[in-house]
Design brief:
This protein is 23% helix and 51% strand. The strands form four sheets. A three-stranded antiparallel sheet has the order 3-5-4, with helices on one face. The protein has a three-stranded antiparallel sheet with strand order 6-8-7, with helices on both faces.
């Protein structure tokens, strides 16, 4: 995991996950995807997490992924031209086929999902509201084999459909990616 090297090559971190004592990063590469910087932080509890989110947002860094590592929270931030106004967490049951429906009331309030992790047998989705008023129209969870070729093909296919990958949950033999459509 070399975030600095990948970011310097034009890859934008769009999600992180923790599995088997390792941190995995989902990157997106393409024209128009540019960041001025990135930051990876970890927090020991929910109070530190809230303080870290607020501090980074004040400094112009937008959260772009979250991972629960058995009580240690990792958050990756990217510095872009967009400004985050507020953040929140949305808890939903672990029902991938119902996730989109369960998150719809949050999308209706102009929140954008920017990360997902599992905690206490539920999905916890990190959402932000930004000054630009961007609105996510829909979300989808898609499961892939953990083979990088299959993941790349799946992500490319979803991007062609107008979906952006913005969250990652790695399980060893499979990967679940959160996709967002604007």
């Amino acid at each position: 995991m070399d975030i600095a090297r990948n970011a310097n090559r034009g890859f934008v971190p769009m999600g992180i996950s923790f599995y088997d004592q390792k941190l995995f990063v989902l990157y997106l590469h393409g024209e128009g995807l540019e960041i001025q910087g990135w930051n990876l932080e970890w927090y020991h509890d929910s109070d530190e997490l809230a303080e870290g989110l607020n501090k980074n947002i004040e400094e112009g860094y937008n959260p772009s992924g979250i991972a629960d590592a058995r009580g240690l929270f990792f958050v990756i931030y990217i510095k872009t031209t967009g400004d985050t106004l507020s953040w929140d967490f949305v808890q939903t049951p672990m029902k991938p086929d119902r996730y989109s429906i369960l998150l719809q009331p949050t999308l209706a309030k102009a929140y954008i999902p920017v990360g997902i992790t599992e905690m206490y047998g539920e999905y916890w989705t990190l959402v932000i509201k930004n000054k630009g008023g961007d609105r996510a129209m829909m979300t989808q969870l898609e499961k892939f084999s953990s083979n990088n070729v299959i993941i790349n093909q799946g992500v490319i296919s979803k991007v062609k459909e107008g979906m952006l990958p913005w969250g990652l949950m790695y399980y060893g033999d499979s990967v679940t990616i959160l996709f967002v459509r604007f």
